[in-house]
Structures
1.
Amino acid sequence: MSNSFGELCLVVGDFHIPDRSTTIPEKFKRMLVPNKMQHVLCTGNLTTRGSGVYEELRNLAPNVHCVAGDMDDAVMATKGDDTAASQQPSVSFPETKVVKIGQFRIGLVHGHQSIPWGNQDALAGYRRKLGADILISGHTHRNEVTPYDGHYHINPGSITGAYSPCPSSNGADSGLVPSFILLAIQGPKVVCYVYELRNDNVEVSKTEFSKNELESTV
């Protein structure tokens, strides 16, 4: 994609390979082309050493930012700034991370620490703690782009559609679909694309917001 999109960020997580899923859906793989994105923001649960998931993410973008999920193997991560240039010995992913992209502070956390899971009030507490404009979390395996208290909470869902014990907001425990999110960030503006694989078809929805809009609602 051209620079007119600004900085492109792949938001992804909850792979659970190989314990709950075997691979990323082929239609998604064909869409995730190396060197088209500047950042990968991963909510964790890749899950097991040797699965190759982290290496795949490092091949997609020069900046890979990943936090630890509740089921991640600690030796999967690499030491340092989680970029493709890092070649240091393996250590644990951090529990949280804050990344500045465009004019936004983006907080990253897996989400199992937030009780009740997926609760917007609980997530807002983490967002305030991190001083973030946008909070990205996972764990529920259900994608969400939620305006909340003058900020945005984003959940990419599970890119593999892996099983989750977390109930949805309406109490259902079925209907999980593979999903990921692309953020196009240009200065104070964000375009958020949600990709879902439903009935073997990729469906895309779009949300747009700006830093000024967020600040005006606080």
2.
Amino acid sequence: MGDKTKKLPASVSFATGGLGGIGGWIMVHPFNTVSVRMNLASASGTVNELSFVPFAQSLIKKEGFMSLYTGLGAGITRQIFYATSRLGFFELMRDEVAKYRPMDIWSRLGVGVVTGAMAAAISCPAEVSLVRMSNDKSLAPDQRRNYKGVVDCATRIAKEDGISAFWRGAWPFINRAALVGACQIGTYDQFRSMLGNYGVKNELQQVFGASMMSGLIYSVVTNPFESAKNRMAFQRPDPVTGKLPYTGTAQTIMAVAKADGPMALWNGFLPYYLRCGGHTVGMFVIVDLLRKAYWTSVA
């Protein structure tokens, strides 16, 4: 990623990763809102009646166009921690591993898994806030939390549910992020290297081609974990027993597949792919442009 003949300072690697993640997220946040709402609505059967476009149209009609940007502050906050750390840590660890073994696809996937999990653990509080804010308006009026913003959301979660609530659903998020690290960052790095070896010399074409391929792979692989993460992050205790319906990643995935069928794990896939693919392309293009600007400024 970037100039192969020069070593990018770690601070620039982290900063450009974070800024690229933020820029990419602003472009795809509406797709994330629709994806989360479709996924969480699946338990009531709504998704069986409405596909992506009708669902989005219905949402806009009922709640207004700006409802698609509900939780944007939490999404940006998440990128500050998540995108900054996962891309920065990936490149640091990749360069260290390269000192001891060739950087083939397996090395990149392994580094992606480890650094993706690290980034998820750091950004989990912002992720929980994002899910809650994105879906709050879909609840009955007497059940809504009516968050005023990301700070209010985070403060109320800590006060009402306890600090541990920020890591409720942490394991599916960490599991998903480990896969994202491999399927998005690791495969992007590999695909870009391959495109260069196959004669694609234009850097923008390399970035676009590699990010499109990695975005598709990671969307298909991680959608079930996204479903599990959303359900665990937004669940409420049973009013009678006080127990939570979902207790872990595997249990959640199995419970959803048993109750609604295996394909329910891919409910909301189209907006999820638009989010993942769009964010992947947007993020890496912005990162590449920022890094070119950096090298130009220090030349």
